[in-house]
Please model this.
Amino acid sequence: MLIKNQPIYNSGDKPGKGRYRCMKDRNRIRLERDSDILPKCPICDSRRWEKIV
Ligand SMILES: [Zn+2]
Model:
């Protein structure tokens, strides 16, 4: 189930430290620093992420 009103981020953004979930396959990653850049999803190559709160 996708939560539509979560903010969406793209690879290349620096959305700040925290956990993010791939919009396509729900793979989760963690950014450790506010200066970290969102990568492409290592599983499916998707560029779209939602923040996990
Ligand atoms: Zn993915």
Q: What stands out?
A: The longest strand covers residues 18-22.
